[in-house]
Amino acid sequence: MKNIREFLFLTEPNIILVVLGTLILCGMAALVGCFTFLRKRALVGDAISHSVLPGVCLAFILTGEKNPLYFLIGAIATGLASLVIMEWLGRNNKTRPDTAIALLLSVFFGLGIVLLTSIQHSGNAGQAGLDKFLFGKAASITQDDVLLFALSAVFIVGGILVLLRGFYVLSFDENYAQSIGFPVKKLRFALAFITVWSVAIGIQAVGVVLMAALLITPALAARMWTDSIRHMLLIAVFIGLLSGYTGAFISYTAPAMPTGPWIVVMATLMAVFSMIFAPKRGYLTRWREARKNKRITLEENILKLFYALGEKTGNPNGAIIKEDLNNARSFEPAQLTIGLRILQKKGFVKDFLQTWQLTPEGLVAAQRVVRLHRLWELYLQKYLHLNPDHVHDDAEAMEHVITPEIEMQLDALLGNPLTDPHNTKIPPAI
Amino acid sequence: MTLNDFWIILTASLVALCCAIPGCFLVLRKMAMFGDAISHAVLPGLVVAYLISGSRASSVLLFGAALTGLLVTFIIEFIQKKMRVQNDAAIGITYTFLFAVGVILISLFAGQTDLDQECVLYGEIAFVPFDTITLDSGLVLGPRQVWIAGGMLVTLLVILRIGYRGLYLTTFDAGYASTLGVSVALWHYVLMGMVSLATVVSFESVGAIMVIAFLVGPAATAALFAKRLPVMIGIAAFIGVLSSITGYFLAIVLNASVSGSIAVMIGVIFAFALLLKRFIPS
Predict the structure, then answer these.
(1) Which of A149, A281, A327, B175 fits a 20 to 30 Å CA distance from A64?
(2) Are A2-275 and A282-430 the same fold in CATH?
(3) Cβ partners under 8 Å of residue B93, min gap 6
């Protein structure tokens, strides 16, 4: 309880540093990660984050100091080196991009481990804490660190804001960007540099292995909520900040809990929530819509059957027994019963002594579906030159999605036709 | 060279061989990053396996942990298809999450498993000779890891022998394979199962990330030269063993991590092979 209060009200100076540092790192990574995500290079981000490890160790070997600035320079150097080799391999050789990513990721990381263990075994007393780069050291962020993070954030966010338009176009269509005169090569390098930079400092929060999550996961979650890149950037940063804050909170209040993994777990939970519940792109919405479409299709198919059977007997409102409906079209079990019940509730059909018949409203609705079906068949025959016996299946799908506007256009285009390719009458518009 | 050196090199070579077999298929199928995903994602499975078995995981539990690797392919596919997330992001979010859960479990049960965070990242191959199997009669059978890795190699070779046709067909021409009635999905999961097994057995010796070097590196090098699959697997196996031997001596010279050094040697050999290919056109 005391811990919770301490954290929430930031009573300890140490907590202020941790929270501030984590928030800067997570927010920045989320911002940069949006471009990584949109360019479908999530795994390249992963490779970069593993590749900065040897740079950190080299910086220590060369300078003998644990200066965050030297670490940053070293990390950016090897991160960029790995990226350049990766692109070169993908372009010039038989090695495919995914293989190149996996190879460079593991070899650079191996090199980092070799340097790290070599330093550790050398007995240099100053090396303690280098291994914090493996899993992050959010809990022991110092004032110098925060200063470096903040400075980096200013440059990175500033850089992104200045080059925003270029990055937008680059993220969606590189060839298009080239053709309208954007300096694509320079932009690509700028984006790579910014990405490596934010990874190089981001690993201090979550470590090299989980850094990829800080880049991708907030972007993925944000993508679920919006189609606008501007909103996506804002939402991603918000989710990044929120997961950073909650992750730091959990690791502070629960004893001996690592910060980095909790940040990742929180971000993932938010992403999963977004994937399920986001309006429009979320699973739930899509599932509901698919179910609705299925129901409409079922209803319209049944209405159409009534009409077709009525055409045969010459009495569109005639009473029909259920077996006839089932024989005329094979429904999945129970579907016909469900469909009839829904139509009955809507007042389109009525039930009379074990038989079913269309109501006047039902007849209108049925006529519309049949009309759309036959108009589409005619359209396919006339404009796509399809054989009359090939047009039915396509019309079966289209009849459910044609809007009144398209219906009018079709009608006008075909010259208010009266019969379809099978020489049956097209019901008039009502 | 002492007996301990021999055991370490032997373990590394066995691990390299275990990885070379599924690795070749991963590279050919452009699925190298699935190796990355599986190698990270088996961590929570391993932690749970260790917790159940006390200290040392039994072979039964290793198979259990390998199921986590298989599970991750299901999850990635589910996120990709049902949640409509692009492939790279689906892989990224899945394995980082599972790895994070694994690290949290290790912290939660610190001291109750032999796994610690460093072991997870780069293994403890240097300690292999000290963990031996001793029979009740007092006979020392050699390091436990050698037996586990050796057993796994035999298992993988048997799977390869039985499933060669299916794996081969679905790798090179999935469309043709399905017209022959060979299930593409089935062999996909068989391969993922092989990768999981190789990863799990390698985990203790070389850690989660260097496994990727073992899986992909030798296979990628072999792919530069080989024109036929059996040749490719052979070259990859040879390079895996070669990297293990040279890597071990590099580690002694630098006084550094053995698995890291082997990964570096895998990279060096790949770079050397690239040069070779440039100057000697095939």
Answers:
(1) A149
(2) no
(3) A213, A216, A217, A220, A268, A271, B79, B85
- CATH architecture for segment(s) B3-123+142-279: Orthogonal Bundle (1.10)
Give me the total of CB pairs closer than 8 Å, taking one residue from chain A and one from chain B: 200
Tell me whether strands A320-321 and A355-358 are parallel, antiparallel or unpaired. antiparallel
- The pLDDT assigned to B57 comes to 56
A150-196: per-residue pLDDT in tens? 999 999 999 999 999 999 999 888 889 889 888 999 999 999 999 99
Nearest residue of A to residue B36 by CA position? A102
Nearest CA in chain B to A41: B88
Percentage, residues of chain A above pLDDT 70: 98
Q: Which residue ranges make up each domain of chain A?
A: 2-275, 282-430
Asked if A111 and B217 come within 8 Å (Cβ–Cβ), the reply is no
Helix (H, G, I), strand (E, B) or coil at B132: strand
- Tens digits of per-residue pLDDT, B2-52? 888 899 999 999 999 999 999 999 999 999 989 989 998 888 988 888 888
User: What is the token pair recorded at B126?
Assistant: 């240097």
Asked if A209 is an interface residue toward chain B (Cβ–Cβ < 8 A), one would say yes
* H or E, element range at A301: helix A283-313
CA distances from B66 to A151, B34, B44, B61, B199 (A): 44, 14, 10, 8, 8
Under CATH, domain A2-275 is a member of which superfamily?
A: ABC transporter involved in vitamin B12 uptake, BtuC (1.10.3470.10)
Is ipTM beyond 0.90?
A: yes
Q: List the beta bridge partners of residue A355.
A: A321, A352
User: B262 contacts in A (CB within 8 Å)?
Assistant: 110
How far A118 CA sits from the closest chain B CA (Å)?
4
Query: What tokens were used for A308?
Result: 């077709």
Q: How far is B216 from chain A (nearest CA, A)?
A: 6
pTM of the model: 0.88
Best CATH choice for the domain A282-430 from the list 3.30.70.3400, 1.10.540.10, 1.10.10.10, 1.10.3720.10: 1.10.10.10
- Residue numbers of A between 97 and 126 with CB closer than 8 Å to B: 98-103, 105-118, 121-122
**What are the two backbone dihedrals, phi and then psi, of residue B2, each rounded to the nearest 5 degrees?**
-90, 175
What Å distances lie between residue A174 and A39, A180, A182, A199, A233, CA to CA? 9, 10, 9, 23, 19
- H or E element that contains A159: helix A143-162
Cβ–Cβ gap B251/A114 under 8 Å: yes
